[in-house]
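Q: Please design a sequence for this.
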């Protein structure tokens, strides 16, 4: 890899507002509504089970729309895909605010949450592709780790903003916060400069347009090796979000104590993303991929041995640290292995694999908890961390020559 003077002079600060601002605003909007979706469904007459299903529609919509998102990004370009996704997500949340006034409001709420998930899929894929191509490779992990950190910050502070507005506007206030956040993200995204496709230096023929099938076939080795590692990591991340409150409840803690533990774990999570990205850029992806998954695996194994507030808090902080240093890891690995020709297709498949893990992890935890015990489910989740570490330790160096360097 050759480093140009332009690359050396690049700073993340130079692209901070157009690259990270929309992500922060979009996630503030999403974070504002996440705590109230189930409550809204209950107010509309849905059962507990149906309310839980409606909450999952955001994740399902995002998961199932990853491949179409890649086609949309290829067709319209990164900037307009991001702008459109923000606008559609905003309109969906605006519609959800009117659900209590509709005769069949529960269906409107369900459709709106599905649409928010689909919009998030396009938004996330397009912004990842944009940063992959706009940022020099020597800064790639820092850029994508910062993107992951900004996303977590937005999801973290969104509920507080929503709670403040709900004091005056009721539960619909959270949806209006979401509307404003996503519409602001769309507006700010208009400032993103378009990327100029590099011309062929030898005057040779323009590469043939890629297809989803040939990208999947030509990169099957990556998807089946490193891709399996990111599936395990996604399952681990999604499961630990469920494990902490469930174990707190198992120990007889009230909602306030459980929320405090969860919140402090999230705070640690948000503090370490940039140093981790810098380490990945300077030393290599393995230096974060293996330790982060091992730390989370060990911490989850320790959870069933905790018997009170302080021990659970300490383990939760360890989980937050492990998850925090892995911020942006999945996006960075996706960027590393993605080809110049067919990057959108590759990232669509990559995100589909990751979201499959995020969907399947809590299902595995639930099944083992129902069949054996909560402790068994938590231990099985911890084993996912060790398995992910093993995959990364073997697969990343073996496929290093395939990185986009």
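A: Design:
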């Amino acid at each position: 890899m050759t480093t140009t003077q332009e690359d050396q002079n690049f700073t993340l600060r130079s692209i901070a507002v157009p690259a990270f601002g929309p992500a922060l605003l979009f996630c503030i909007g999403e974070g504002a509504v996440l705590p109230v979706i189930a409550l809204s469904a209950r107010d509309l007459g849905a059962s507990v089970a149906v309310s839980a299903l409606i909450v999952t529609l955001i994740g399902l919509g995002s998961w199932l729309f990853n491949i179409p998102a890649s086609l949309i990004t290829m067709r319209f370009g990164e900037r307009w895909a991001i702008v459109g996704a923000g606008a559609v997500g905003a309109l969906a949340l605006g519609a959800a605010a009117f659900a209590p006034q509709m005769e069949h409001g529960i269906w409107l709420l369900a459709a709106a949450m599905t649409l928010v998930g689909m919009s998030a899929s396009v938004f996330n894929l397009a912004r990842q592709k944009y940063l992959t191509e706009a940022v020099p490779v020597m800064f790639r992990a820092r850029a994508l780790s910062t993107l992951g950190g900004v996303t977590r910050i937005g999801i973290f502070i969104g509920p507080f903003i929503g709670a403040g507005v709900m004091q005056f506007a009721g539960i619909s206030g959270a949806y209006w916060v979401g509307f404003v956040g996503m519409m602001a993200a769309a507006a700010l995204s208009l400032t993103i400069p378009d990327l100029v496709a590099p011309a062929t230096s030898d005057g040779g023929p323009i590469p043939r347009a890629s297809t989803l099938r040939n990208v999947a076939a030509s990169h099957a080795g990556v998807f089946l090796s490193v891709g399996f590692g990111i599936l395990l990591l996604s399952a681990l991340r999604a499961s630990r979000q469920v494990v902490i409150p469930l174990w707190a409840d198992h120990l007889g803690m009230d909602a306030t104590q459980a929320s405090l533990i969860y919140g402090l774990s999230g705070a640690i999570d948000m503090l370490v993303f940039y140093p981790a990205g810098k380490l990945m850029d300077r030393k290599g992806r393995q230096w974060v991929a293996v330790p982060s998954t091992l730390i989370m695996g060990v911490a989850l194994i320790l959870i069933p041995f905790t018997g009170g507030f302080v021990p659970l808090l300490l383990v939760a902080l360890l989980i937050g640290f492990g998850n925090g240093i892995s911020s942006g890891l999945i996006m960075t690995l996706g960027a590393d292995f993605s080809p110049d020709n067919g990057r959108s297709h590759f990232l669509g498949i990559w995100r589909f694999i990751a979201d499959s893990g995020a969907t399947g992890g809590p299902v595995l935890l639930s099944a083992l908890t129902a069949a054996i015990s909560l402790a068994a489910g938590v231990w099985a989740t911890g084993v996912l961390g060790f398995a992910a570490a093993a995959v990364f330790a073997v697969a990343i160096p073996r496929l290093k020559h395939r990185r986009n360097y």
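Q: Thanks. Anything notable?
A: The chain has 19 helices and no strands. The first helix runs from residue 5 to 9.
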